[in-house]
Amino acid sequence: SFYKLTLLRGDGRRGDEVRALKVDLGSARVAGIDGSAWLSMGQTTVLAHVRGPMEARRRSDEDPDAARLVVTVTTANPTRAKERRDAEVANCVARTLETALSLTTYPRSVIEVSLHVVADDGSKMACCVNAASL
Protein backbone atom coordinates (compact mmCIF):
# COMPACT_ATOMS: atom_id res chain seq x y z
CA SER A 1 0.00 0.00 0.00
CA PHE A 2 1.03 3.64 -0.50
CA TYR A 3 1.12 4.35 3.24
CA LYS A 4 3.53 1.47 3.90
CA LEU A 5 5.86 2.70 1.17
CA THR A 6 5.94 6.26 2.52
CA LEU A 7 5.95 5.18 6.20
CA LEU A 8 2.86 7.32 6.87
CA ARG A 9 -0.07 6.43 9.07
CA GLY A 10 -3.55 6.14 7.61
CA ASP A 11 -4.30 9.79 8.43
CA GLY A 12 -1.10 11.05 6.77
CA ARG A 13 1.03 11.54 9.91
CA ARG A 14 4.56 10.19 10.21
CA GLY A 15 5.23 7.64 12.94
CA ASP A 16 6.74 10.25 15.27
CA GLU A 17 4.02 12.89 14.83
CA VAL A 18 1.18 13.48 17.30
CA ARG A 19 -2.35 14.48 16.37
CA ALA A 20 -3.04 18.19 15.87
CA LEU A 21 -4.67 19.71 18.97
CA LYS A 22 -7.33 22.44 18.92
CA VAL A 23 -9.06 23.73 22.06
CA ASP A 24 -11.90 26.22 22.56
CA LEU A 25 -12.84 26.87 26.19
CA GLY A 26 -16.24 28.28 27.09
CA SER A 27 -17.60 27.48 23.64
CA ALA A 28 -21.14 26.72 24.87
CA ARG A 29 -22.88 29.76 26.27
CA VAL A 30 -26.07 28.07 27.39
CA ALA A 31 -28.05 28.68 30.56
CA GLY A 32 -27.42 26.00 33.14
CA ILE A 33 -23.95 25.06 31.82
CA ASP A 34 -21.17 26.07 34.21
CA GLY A 35 -18.28 25.20 31.91
CA SER A 36 -17.61 23.86 28.45
CA ALA A 37 -14.78 22.90 26.13
CA TRP A 38 -14.49 21.95 22.46
CA LEU A 39 -11.46 19.72 21.88
CA SER A 40 -10.14 18.27 18.64
CA MET A 41 -7.28 15.81 18.50
CA GLY A 42 -6.66 15.17 14.84
CA GLN A 43 -9.98 14.12 13.31
CA THR A 44 -11.56 13.29 16.70
CA THR A 45 -13.74 16.03 18.20
CA VAL A 46 -15.45 16.12 21.62
CA LEU A 47 -17.71 18.76 23.16
CA ALA A 48 -17.72 18.75 26.98
CA HIS A 49 -20.30 20.40 29.26
CA VAL A 50 -20.01 20.62 33.04
CA ARG A 51 -22.78 21.47 35.49
CA GLY A 52 -22.20 21.83 39.19
CA PRO A 53 -21.56 21.38 41.91
CA MET A 54 -25.30 21.67 42.41
CA GLU A 55 -27.92 20.26 44.75
CA ALA A 56 -28.95 16.71 44.06
CA ARG A 57 -32.42 16.46 42.52
CA ARG A 58 -33.40 13.52 44.71
CA ARG A 59 -32.38 12.72 48.23
CA SER A 60 -31.35 9.24 47.09
CA ASP A 61 -28.71 10.84 44.82
CA GLU A 62 -26.99 12.52 47.76
CA ASP A 63 -23.81 11.32 49.42
CA PRO A 64 -23.42 12.90 52.87
CA ASP A 65 -19.62 12.76 52.65
CA ALA A 66 -18.78 13.85 49.09
CA ALA A 67 -20.13 15.13 45.81
CA ARG A 68 -21.43 12.56 43.35
CA LEU A 69 -19.75 12.69 39.93
CA VAL A 70 -21.94 11.70 36.96
CA VAL A 71 -20.24 11.30 33.56
CA THR A 72 -22.16 10.58 30.36
CA VAL A 73 -20.73 10.01 26.89
CA THR A 74 -22.85 10.18 23.76
CA THR A 75 -21.86 9.44 20.18
CA ALA A 76 -23.45 10.42 16.90
CA ASN A 77 -25.30 7.48 15.28
CA PRO A 78 -25.31 5.24 18.36
CA THR A 79 -25.31 1.46 18.06
CA ARG A 80 -25.33 -1.14 20.81
CA ALA A 81 -21.57 -1.63 20.46
CA LYS A 82 -20.93 2.13 20.56
CA GLU A 83 -23.14 2.49 23.64
CA ARG A 84 -21.12 -0.21 25.44
CA ARG A 85 -17.87 1.50 24.46
CA ASP A 86 -19.28 4.89 25.55
CA ALA A 87 -20.10 3.42 28.98
CA GLU A 88 -16.49 2.20 29.28
CA VAL A 89 -15.18 5.64 28.30
CA ALA A 90 -17.52 7.35 30.80
CA ASN A 91 -16.31 5.03 33.56
CA CYS A 92 -12.66 5.74 32.73
CA VAL A 93 -13.26 9.51 32.62
CA ALA A 94 -15.10 9.38 35.95
CA ARG A 95 -12.25 7.46 37.63
CA THR A 96 -9.72 9.93 36.21
CA LEU A 97 -11.68 12.99 37.36
CA GLU A 98 -12.33 11.55 40.82
CA THR A 99 -8.59 11.57 41.48
CA ALA A 100 -8.28 15.21 40.38
CA LEU A 101 -11.39 16.69 42.02
CA SER A 102 -11.85 17.34 45.72
CA LEU A 103 -15.29 15.75 45.94
CA THR A 104 -15.35 15.88 49.75
CA THR A 105 -15.44 19.68 49.54
CA TYR A 106 -19.02 19.53 48.20
CA PRO A 107 -21.00 16.97 50.21
CA ARG A 108 -24.62 16.25 49.22
CA SER A 109 -24.10 17.73 45.74
CA VAL A 110 -23.80 16.48 42.16
CA ILE A 111 -21.31 17.33 39.41
CA GLU A 112 -22.47 16.37 35.91
CA VAL A 113 -20.02 16.00 33.02
CA SER A 114 -21.54 15.44 29.56
CA LEU A 115 -19.25 14.47 26.70
CA HIS A 116 -20.56 14.54 23.14
CA VAL A 117 -18.34 12.79 20.59
CA VAL A 118 -18.88 14.73 17.37
CA ALA A 119 -16.31 12.81 15.29
CA ASP A 120 -14.19 9.76 16.13
CA ASP A 121 -10.98 8.89 14.31
CA GLY A 122 -9.39 6.60 16.85
CA SER A 123 -8.48 8.74 19.88
CA LYS A 124 -11.87 8.93 21.56
CA MET A 125 -10.72 7.91 25.05
CA ALA A 126 -7.84 10.39 25.17
CA CYS A 127 -9.96 13.16 23.69
CA CYS A 128 -12.77 12.58 26.21
CA VAL A 129 -10.40 12.54 29.21
CA ASN A 130 -8.66 15.71 28.03
CA ALA A 131 -11.92 17.55 27.23
CA ALA A 132 -13.44 16.65 30.61
CA SER A 133 -10.35 17.76 32.50
CA LEU A 134 -10.26 21.19 30.87
Can you describe what's shown?
The chain has 134 residues and is of the alpha+beta class. It is 27% helix and 32% strand. It is built from 3 helices and 5 strands. The longest helix has 21 residues. The termini are far apart.
List keywords for this structure.
134 residues; alpha+beta; 5-stranded mixed β-sheet; 5 strands; 32% strand
Major sheet attributes = 5 strands, mixed
- How much β-strand is present in the residues? 25-35%
Percent helix: 25-40%
Number of helices: 3
Residue-averaged pLDDT: 87
What are the secondary-structure elements, in order, as H or E? Answer: HEEEEHEH
Oligomeric description of these chains? single chain
- Structural class given helices, strands, pairing? alpha+beta
Q: What is the first-to-last residue Cα distance?
A: 39 Å
Q: Order of strands side by side in the largest beta sheet?
A: 1-2-3-5-4
Q: Globular, elongated, flat, extended or rod-shaped: what is the shape?
A: elongated
Unreliable stretches (pLDDT < 50, length at least 5) are: none
- How many runs of DSSP E, i.e. beta strands? 5
Rg over C-alpha atoms, rounded to the nearest angstrom: 17 Å
